[in-house]
Amino acid sequence: MAYDDAINKAKVAFGGAVEHMKSEFSKLQVGRAHAGLLENLMVEMYGSLQPLKAVANISVPDAKTLQVQPWDKAGLHPIEKAITDSGLGLNPVNTGLAIMINMPPMTEERRADVVKHVKGLAEDARISVRTARQDAHNAFKQMKDNNEMTEDDVRSADKQLQESVDASNKQIDEAAKAKEQAVMTV
C-alpha cells in the first residue's frame, strides 16, 4: 500500500531517536569509569580537531580509573588540555606515557543534575518521535487529498503508526528509567 513507505520512514526515525538518546546516555559521567565518556571528545592534533578515540587508546584499568594512552607521545599535552577543558569535571594526570583520570565520586547534587539531564534527553527523544509521527500523518493527509488513500485507509495507517509510537515511547521510558536508577545507585 502507498502509506507503508511513510510508516516505514517514521519507524526508522523512531529507532534513530531511541538510539541517539542511548548514545547520549553513554556519554554521561555517572561516577564509574567507562571509555564512552571520552571517546568523542575532540582533540586538536596534527593541525585539526579529531575525536580522542582516533588518536589514543582509552582503557579502564579499574572501576574508578580511565587511562588514555596516545599513539604518539606528542599528543599527551593536547589530550590533557582537551580533557581539562571539556567541562566534565575530570582532572587528568600526565604520567609521561599516558594520562590517568580518577573518576570523582558523585555528590547527591550532581546525581540530581544528571537525572535531570537524563529526563531532558528522554523528552528530546519523545519530541523527535512526535515530529516523525506528525510528518507521517501529514503524508497520509496528502495522499488522501490526492485520492491515493481513502478515509478508512488513513484511520488504519494512523492506528499502525500510533502502535509504533507507543512502542518507541515505551523503549524511551524504559531506557531513561534504567539510566536514572544507575545514576542514583551509590
Helix content: 55-70%
CATH fold category name of the largest domain: Topoisomerase I, Chain A, domain 4
Range of strand content: 15-25%
N to C succession of SSEs: HEEHEEHEEHH
**Apparent shape:** elongated
Low-pLDDT sequence parts? none
Rounded mean pLDDT is: 86
Distance between the termini: 52 Å
CATH class of the largest domain: Mainly Alpha
CATH superfamily of the largest domain: Ribosome-recycling factor
Number of structurally distinct domains = 2
Q: Could you say which structural class the secondary elements and strand pairing correspond to?
A: alpha+beta
The major sheet is characterized as: 4 strands, antiparallel
**Any idea what the radius of gyration is?**
22 Å
CATH architecture of the largest domain: Orthogonal Bundle
The number of distinct β-strands equals 6
Helical stretch tally: 5
Order of the strands making up the biggest sheet: 3-4-6-5
Brief summary of the model shown:
The protein has 186 residues and is of the alpha+beta class.
Indicate the topology:
Blueprint: H1 3-26, E1 42-45, E2 48-51, H2 52-55, E3 56-62, E4 65-70, H3 76-85, E5 92-94, E6 99-102, H4 108-145, H5 151-184
Antiparallel strand pairs: 1-2, 3-4, 4-6, 5-6
What attributes characterize this protein structure?
6 strands, Topoisomerase I, Chain A, domain 4, Gyrase A, domain 2, 186 residues, alpha+beta, 59% helix, 2 domains
How would you characterize the overall build of this protein?
This protein has two domains: 102 residues, Topoisomerase I, Chain A, domain 4 (Orthogonal Bundle); 68 residues, Gyrase A, domain 2 (2-Layer Sandwich), CATH 3.30.1360. It has five helices and six strands, in the order H-E-E-H-E-E-H-E-E-H-H. The model has no long low-confidence stretch (mean pLDDT 86).
